[in-house]
Amino acid sequence: MGTISGISFDNHVLRWYFVCCCFLIVKMSFMSVFTTIKRVIHKAFSSPEDTKQMAVEPQENENVERVRRAHLNDLENIPLFFVAGLIYTFANPEETAAKVLFVVYVVTRYLHTIVYAVVPIPQPARGLSWSV
Q1: What is the DSSP letter of 4?
Q2: Is 126 within 8 Å of 110 (Cβ atoms)?
Q3: What is the distance between the alpha carbons of residues 73 and 13, in angstroms, rounded to a whole number?
Q4: What are 3's strand-pairing partners?
Q5: According to the model, what pLDDT value does residue 122 have?
Q6: What predicted TM-score, i.e. pTM, was given to this entire model?
Q7: Which residues cross the membrane (predicted)?
């Protein structure tokens, strides 16, 4: 294929990195939608202007807050993967090792959300999925 400023799209590690980044971007985008859905279901809006149409007072709901915290956790951790993963691809890593590391990270991010926000499971499930 071609190159852009020295980045070769023939590099399989770089391709895997981009694919994993896409899965993580989709996940973060979904979390915004999931938070909104939970807010509507539980009528738990965060500001007065959001509650005018529903005739309810702004309130917190633990289910909504749990999803919101999972989303914030993604916003804190996934950008670090974007940077560290890209730097790692430039280090010319062994292809299989890079694929495994990238895929394991993506899977554990999804698992973290599932065990914390979708179907809450007691610790250490969340901690284990986060620590990987």
Answers
A1: E
A2: no
A3: 26
A4: 8
A5: 75
A6: 0.81
A7: 16-37
Count other C-beta atoms under 10 Å from residue 107's C-beta: 14
Q: What is the pLDDT of residues 53-72, one digit of tens each?
A: 766 776 788 999 999 999 99
Residue 6 has pLDDT above 60, yes or no: no
Contacts of 74 (CB under 8 A, 6+ apart): 24, 27, 28, 31, 109, 113
Q: Which residues, 6 or more positions from 36, have their beta carbon under 8 angstroms from its beta carbon?
A: none
> In the numeric block, which tokens belong to residue 26?
């989709």
Q: Which two tokens stand for residue 103?
A: 């895929």
Q: Please tell me the distance from the alpha carbon of residue 100 to that of residue 117, in angstroms, as a whole number.
A: 25
How many degrees, rounded to 5, is the angle at CA 55 between CA 49 and CA 61? 75
Q: Which residue has the tokens 């993580």?
A: 24
8 sits in which H/E element: strand 7-8
